[in-house]
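Why this split exists: single-chain examples teach little about how molecules sit against one another. For that reason, every record in the complexes split bundles all components of an assembly together and asks for one structure covering all of them. Below is a record exactly as it appears in the raw files.
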Amino acid sequence: MPEIAEVETVRRTLKKQILNKEIKKVEVLYSKMLLSDVEEFKTILKGNCFNDIDRRGKWLIFELNEHYLLSHLRMEGKFFLKNSQEKKEKHEHIIITFSDNTDLRYHDTRKFGRMELIKKEELKKNVQIQKQGFEPGEEGLTSNYLLEKFKKKQIPIKTLLLDQTIISGLGNIYANEVLFASKINPFKKGCEITKNEAENIVVMSKEIIEKAITLGGTTIKSYTSSLGVTGRFQQELKVHKREDLPCLHCQTPIKRSKINGRSTYYCPKCQKVG
DNA sequence: AGTGCGACCCGAACGC
DNA sequence: TGCGTTCGGGTCGCAC
């Protein structure tokens, strides 16, 4: 389950490996994950090369000569760099072969990830990219900004933290961690969030994401980033996946509930309502 | 407009 | 070599 820290780790790793290599061949084995036309996708990529790799929220932005390749890993998308001769694995859906006979292979067990090719001039009006809110650590992410976004919301703060148009990059794991660190009950309505709590969200989301990035992300369940880099943030999780285990602050057993169908972990004592 | 929920996927975990 | 069911999780699209 890649989240922003995982995506950033993939970006940094791939940048060292695939820039400025000519694309020789493109195979699309599962076309539904491509929002672009398959033939057009192949035609544009062939003979092209990746000049840079950027990121906006959880979207990877591969820069080509006249296009950008947008890639969202969703839950289980991974990029692997392999030798072209290596056997193709079951869940490798897109294979980009460079002229030095190495492959960039997109692997996605659940086929949830998406890729789209757009012209460079279309980036600033691209809906997916343009609607992303501020990322943790960005200057625009202030307590006043959050209070403004939250003030009319009747829905739980947990749900709001997952809304990428408000804060870009938090997923389920980090939403749980940020709320625990901020001592906010995940069920609390957006409109009831105080200035002080909003400030905590600003500070804690920055702190947690920065730490997760330095540790290469969180490896949980099936996720490993490209080239075998393994996230070590899992050891840092304070509340996520700790149901019935003692709270690290007060020893109260951690509770698990569902908010919008997603597992939500919290300490009923440290994260009291109201 | 704000909100809730099913659909998309399939391997793992679970129940029997 | 057990088989059928449930779960998870980011995002979209649709219903209300």
